[in-house]
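step: validate -> pass
step: tokenize input -> pass
step: predict -> running
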Amino acid sequence: MEKKDSFVLRHLSNLLPEQWWLDADPLEPDSHPALIGEDGADLVVIGAGYTGLWTALLAKERDPDRDVVILEQLETGAGASGRNGGFCSMSLTHGFTNGLNRYANEMETIQRLGQENLVEIEATIHRYQIECDWERTGELTVAVEPWQVEELQEEFELRNRLNDPVEYLDEKSIQSRVHSPTYLAALFDPDGTAMVDPARLVWGLERACLKLGVRIFEHSPAERLEDLGEAIRVHTTFGAVTAPRVAVATNVAPSLIKSARKYVVPVYDYVLVTEPLTSGQLDAIGWSGREGISDAGNQFHYYRLTADNSILWGGFDTVYKFGGKLRKEYEYNADTYAKLAEHFLQTFPQLTGIKFTHAWGGAIDTCSRFSPFWGISLGGKASYVLGFTGLGVASTRFGANVMLDLLDGVSSERTSLRMVKVKPWPFPPEPLRYFFIRLTQRSIVRADANGGKRNLWLKLLDRLGMGFDS
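step: predict -> pass
step: emit ->
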């Protein structure tokens, strides 16, 4: 075992604990000043990640005269929006199966709305000339265990029946497409996912907001909301903004709407990036379609080629810290990096000797149904969306549209969905929360090792609508 570990660790010898997307990128914009003193607006958006930026942009597109202010505690895209894998998926429910298990009667509508949302994101990128390495590659979900083959076959039949066409690839077909000895079968979704540089998408949305007149204040953490009756005053460290409407888009950070906090826990996810592949290494693995790839396990990896033909490889481990604490030191996890490197070399043994150059982690806003939920507060003057659970690159735009519908009093096809009207089960308080999550994680590991068979605990969660499958 020590010999094996030493072999794997040699691939990490050049590792830097830095985000690959932010490494000396010339497109990174200048910082914005902090809010000082009193100000006013028609809409205040708290948070300058994907959700907040989409909310501000869509608000201005709906009403160009609306005065919109964004308050960000750090810098634009400093959270999950600037550090994710760049999978821009049409799924609004963290995958088809997860959505079908919860919203069977709405699933065809949800899938259509998700596809329309992805098309509109692409149109926005073109309209505002956002440079973000957008590639409409589609996505491969690969089976690496026999039980996963059966599940992919079932999903193939169900999705095609619901007018969401996907292609089933047998072992020979998938291995000819991407050369990995671990692949047994795959589903190919040709139009449901685009690959994107997530940080450049954030910065492009920021520039689009500024072009439309949105005002952005960085290093201005919103500390509390004061209900003034007809308006809300949002207090920051050095000032305040008063507005009739507030959109809370704080992702995994503790929400200013305290009633929403019990629905979300932060779990840490980790990523490695290799050095750029040579032409010989690319030939050895195929992957000419540059699709996004994830495997079909409950604990799953996700991976993709970047613009310079490095491989971003992440997922599998999800780490929860007692009390739901958010700390900078949690963003680095040497044990997980070693495990990810080992799994990478099992998937692509022909890349033995390649070096990983970057590694990082970040907290994901996880809820018990693995898909976003919405709420309103303070007499309808404030709205929020949370719980994207790591699949928010595209669904945050949909979430922002729903938030604006709720704030503007608009009845739409979106707001009529059960997934919008109903909240997930809340997590129990500590210490029960910690034991609940640890028991669930151990059960998921056991299921993956036991042919996908779910134990009594997972079956109970499934029955309660809290089924965890990743």
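step: describe -> Residues 31-133+194-263+368-427 form a domain with the FAD/NAD(P)-binding domain fold (CATH 3.50.50.60).
step: cleanup -> pass
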